[in-house]
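Standup notes, structure subgroup. Blocker cleared on the C2G input:
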Amino acid sequence: MNRVITFGTFDVFHVGHINILERARELGDYLIVGVSSDELNFSKKKRYPIYNQKDRVKIISSLKCVDEVFVEESLELKLEYIKKYNVKLLVMGDDWQGKFDWVKSDCDVLYLPRTPSISTTEIIEVVKASF
Ligand code: C2G
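Run returned:
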């Protein structure tokens, strides 16, 4: 079985998120998703996600292109997760281009083009501006 892994916060779930998950799934036949924990998000972005980790895990778990979900506690644990889930390919959006090349000893890495013109940050800004 060709097992693929990807990671993300997937806060305020949108079409860019589903596009990358569907494309990742098509590159293999079993897709595992590491959903970033609330604390990991806070450490990266200095704010908590709008949707908490329990709800984000529930949303990602409900998608038909996703086979398995776990909580990603640290960016540095990528290699441990890759070994634990026995995956052959790591897929990320190209905003992460080159950032996870250090796992290439154990796993192929592919950066896919992001869906243009949509992001969680932009959605939050648009909603804020409309009030
Ligand atoms: N994405 C995309 N197109 C967009 C927005 C996002 O393809 N318009 C992709 C990102 O490139 C990423 C995935 O969707 O691969 C999840 O995006 P985020 O939720 O923003 O993930 P991030 O906070 O970058 O967390 O270990 C890595 C981190 O957990 C990734």
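Discussed briefly. The chain has one domain: 3-129.
Next: hand off to the docking folks.
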